[in-house]
Structure formats: structure tokens, C-alpha cells
Amino acid sequence: MADKEQIKKIIQAVQSLPTLPTVAVKVQSLIKSPTAGAAELAKVIEYDQSISAKLLSLVNSAYYGLSRKINNIKEAVAYLGTNTVSQLVLALGVIKTFEGEGNRGFNRAQFWIHDIAVATLSREIAKSEKRHKHPDDIFTAGLLHDIGKVALDHYCTEIFKPVLEAVEKEQLPFYKIEQKVIGLDHTRVGEWVARSWELPLLTIVTIRHHHEKPSARKGFSLSQDNAVDIVSIADWIAIKNKIGFSGSPVVEDPDDEIFQRAGITREKSQEIVRRVKPEILKAAQSMGIV
Ligand SMILES: [Fe+2]
Ligand SMILES: [Fe+2]
Known about the structure:
290 residues, Hypothetical protein af1432, 0% strand, globular, binds fe (ii) ion
């Protein structure tokens, strides 16, 4: 049942969120600036040693499968491009903000593996037959789609606890349990967090709408519609194939309309998961998650 006091506490928690690591903030403004160059981007990233180290470890891991070793950030930017690197830095910055533990029933490592799986699958679907013009942007939207859950666990640990207890007993999708127990779900909390950090609009829209029926969406651009469709499918694939754990005991089958619009079949999605599954854990390892 909705509890106004609890919702007020959640809003207060979001209002007092710490800022993202400086490097992630700077990288975000660089992406928006049309004149920003590769050298400038590399300089900003190098300033944060821990994120630089994780970035190099990730680009040199089997996840990217590059044919040569990348020795420094400049090379990473030159080889992968400014947008890919910027999106990765943003992702690493957000993950860093949520370091530590919350409730015992919410396993952070498994949660991030779920998100890396959704990010990777989303990017692969976006790339396949050019379903979306910006696969790297879809990667970020996929990675952060459930950010509201970790924000609740991290900053509203006590409020989140009964949700996790109810999950043990009820066979419902996670967001429906959240709505029953606290009166709102992670899509709304995630949207607040994403707005307060000024994350990309595509990411904000995906966070907010990834559990909604397509008929509920209004005024979406084609790119936003496509991103939400793709991430919903990737979420379904990741949960069905038990890659990581998002906390949800069950998953709703996306509407046929979503598959049709994303131009992918359920069979084809299984083919993609078989191909990328082994790399997901390797990515989590190089990002320092497991
Ligand atoms: Fe979700
Ligand atoms: Fe999810």
C-alpha cells in the first residue's frame, strides 16, 4: 500500500544523492559538445586512475575481442571511438557510485551482471541489421535500466527491505511487488536518479518506460521507442536465461508487437544470447564487479 511518508523519504534520498564521479560528469558534457576532440576526452579520463584502469581492463578483455592490446586511454579512444568510450566511462562512473552493500537479500554482483547482460544484449540487437543508429547509447540505456532498484537498496535500505521479503513469497514481477509494498516502483525512482544526474535522455526514457505496454507510451521519438523495445526484449532474455539476477522471480513475456517493431524473433534472440553469454561474465570481471 502506498505510504506517503515512505515516498517522501525516497524523494529526499534522491535529492541528496552524491554526485557522479567527476570524470563521468565531465565526459557527459564533452559528449554533448560538438567541438570536443578525442585528445581532450582521453585527458579527462586519464585523470581518474581507477576508472582508467577498469576501462583498459575491459577493452583488453575477451568482451571486446580486439586483435591487439590497447595500452592507454588515447589508444582506446582512437580504436573504439569517442562515443563508445564515453558511454563506458559513464557506466563505470555510475557503478562506482553504488559501491558497497545494502540489503543482504539483494546481491549487487548478480544485479550488475544482469545489467551488463541487458546492456550487451541490447547493443547486439541494436547492431543486428542496424536496428538502431546508436548501439552504444542503447548499451548505456540497457546497463542503467534498473538503476532505481540499486538506488532504493543503497539509499533507502529499510524501505526496500519489505519488498525483498515479499519477493520471496509472491510470484509477481519485481515492479508489481514494489508497487504493492511501497506504492511506486524502480522505474520512477530510476527516472528521478537519472534526471538528477542529467543522464542522456534516451537512458531516462528507457528507465522510466521499460515495463510499460507500448500502448501506454506517448510522444516518443522513433529512437526512444526503439530503445525501450530493445531493452525490454533484452531484459526478458537475460531473466529467462538466468544471466545474473535482477531480483525479479518472474518476467512478463513482451508483447508480440514489441518483437515485431524491434524486428527480432524469439528464436533469433536465443541465438544472440548463446553468442554473447560467455563474454558477459568476463566483462563483469574486468569492471571489478565479480
Ligand atoms: Fe526493471
Ligand atoms: Fe531488468
